[in-house]
Amino acid sequence: MSAEELIAGESGQGGIEVEGRFILFPNKPLPELDSPSSRAYQVQDLQDSDGKRPLFVLVSDHPFPPRLDSLLAMRNMEHPNLLRPIFWQVVFWPPLERGAFTAIFEKPQGGKLMDSLTSVIKPVHEEGLVETYITPLVGVLKEYNARGLSHRCIRPDNLFFADKERNHVLLGEGFMVPPGYVQNVMFETIENGMCHPLGRSTGAVDEDFYALGVTLLFLVSGRAPAVGTDDDILIINKIEQSSYAALARKERVPKSVKEFLRGVISDDPVDSWSLEDIAFWLDGRRVSPQQPVMPPRANRPIKIAGKDYFTGRSLAHGLFRNWDVALKVIQETDLETWAMRSVGDDVLATAISTVMARAALAEGGETSEMAISWLCMVMDPKGPVRYRTFAAMIDGFGRYMMQAHKDEAEAKLFTDIVFSELPVMWIHNRYGDDTEGAPFLRGIERLRYLLKQTTYGFGFERCLYELNPSMPCGSPLIADFYVEEPNDLLPALEKVPPELQEKTLPMDRHIAAFIAGRFKHDTDSMLKDLSNRGDPNMVVLATLRMFAVMQWKMGPNKLPAISQWIGRFLGPIMNNYHNLKTREMIQEFLPQMIKKGSLVEILNLLDDPARRQGDANGYWHAVDEYAAAKVEVEMLTMEMETQGPRTILAGHRISAMVAFFIAVLIIATMAVTL
Amino acid sequence: MADPAGDQPEAKSNIKLVGFFVVIAAAVVALPTIILLGLGLIPTFVAFKIDPYRRLRYATRCVGSMNLTAAMPYVLQLWGGRNDVDAAFAILGDPMSWMVMFGGAAVGWGFYLGLPSVVQIFLTMQAEQRVIFLTERQQKLVEEWGEVITTQQRPT
Questions:
Q1: Better-scored residue on pLDDT, A525 or A484
Q2: Contact call for A633 and B73, based on CB within 8 A
């Protein structure tokens, strides 16, 4: 069925009705309101017959879940400069032919500030910048900060205007994608810029102000800062010149705003402006712009793949980005001497020396790939955990898994990293003995615990669902249904097309892990049975048991399709009962239960503990009785065949007794008569 | 203290000695009865001699019981009348008394030789009934639990 047919099938008007209030129109796109992660479409509000309040919907067209924490905060976060969703829901989206997360917003009258980051606009004047942008957007970020959240999607093409005059700015959504996932490197701090887009940190107000600063720089110059610069070069420039210098370059930034921008586009959290500093600045208290503290720069750069690296931090990035030659560079370059003499950083030289000695010890004299990671870590303690193609902040591990689980090699690489020393080293390197690192250490321990267990309900998949609370179930059976909550699982399975039901049970590693991670009930014993690969019946029964418990706890009461699906595999389960009459009884009632769609009743019919126990006891009793009877029959038969001597003996014994008693009787009678 | 093992043969020979004197005494005191029973119980002595049961003596018991029962009226006749050797020989001189005493022995032999066949028939019938009952029970078990129970064994 084509997308057009699917759309037409959803609604007579070519729209999809949601909650009986909104009609979403997949055939009426609004490309001017698209975001890098979502497509915009027209929406009709059935409660707004006059059309006074036009709406639009953003439909997420990427596979990653929305940010649940931000989304939930939207319920009570009301700020005039925030484009807040009116309603959100997962909807089956015909153009994608699968379920997709959608969020409905009031359509901003003034549209978007700019279509894309390549657009060029008229530079915004200093005064307009403060009044129209800085003050309102700082207000929004304060709201986020007050709730312990970060926006992580601040960029010029995510700014809108509520009015046609374009005076009332609105900050666009920041929940449709993982933190920083769609952000260009220019809007990300150095360390987040180095990461895989999914491995970026959740961040806090500092990361948001950094992005706000870069956005303002954009507005001041009218075009993207450092436009046309390669991401890696931009990162190196940020490291070696400071972010502000690398981005602002020779742009003419008004002096008063420069102070603010230097304060927020800071590479050092200590120097970075706090909300209080910003409030002072907005109150008009101007201070001289701070000069950033630059890292020590080497006199002589280290060259990798034709690029010069002048600082330890930039070299760390260079080694990571040129992993194939990094080992050769380490082996052929005396990094310790370079750090001591050229950079003039004795601390760094000592750290490099320690790492190299450790690497040599660990590998019996050979420097390994792991040493590259260790070196990156000591040369750039703020940077991400890096190994081969992996680069993620410690709190981005979970989100990185959303990508890695699709690729076996990436998943293995991730698992190797978790079990290596890298994460713990990174945490100690970053936080020392500070308690701030404790939750991350616990997180790594938990990851290792779950990854070690390869049975159903554990392993990579379980980590995926535990670390990403809004991650939909990735089972191929229900991937199109966007199952985010356990109570959506059974209804989704109910809709799985029959051709997919033929050969497999409605259970796989993803479904098991999803239930184990999200369903707040004890599933351990069922998971154990699910992993019993030696006994397929046990797996079927565990699946039935798990789904029956879910149906009992969350409904729906009727699940005929799943009942029929599982019913196909129940034949051998009936044979678990030895008693043929019990089997006949089950065979008689099972079709009725399946038709009824009650997994609970099917389970009770098949797995009644008292019946099962009685059956087992009866069976073994019957086995014993049969065997005893067999032995007795054999013995009697043998006796009948060979009874001559024994019977004769018995006969002689009886005859002797009879004769004796007759004699006694007669003699006694005679004696008495006489 | 004397060795008990060493005393045993001596005690046995003592019993035999006592028995000998008792028989001599009985022969002196009840010679007519001894003569009567000695000749009347010849079938019993023969049975004793040829008894296949050397220890339990079933043939001797059978023949002896009936032989003695048949001889008892003549013994009582002797004891109730003239109890001398002539009287004993007078009884023995009557062919009827021989027929009665030996007939009793024949009845004993009849018991001994006939009853085992009767017992065999009875036991066979009993075993056959039990086999039929057990087979039917097995069939019912198979109907209830399936053929599998015919080969299954309870795990130890």
A1: A484
A2: no
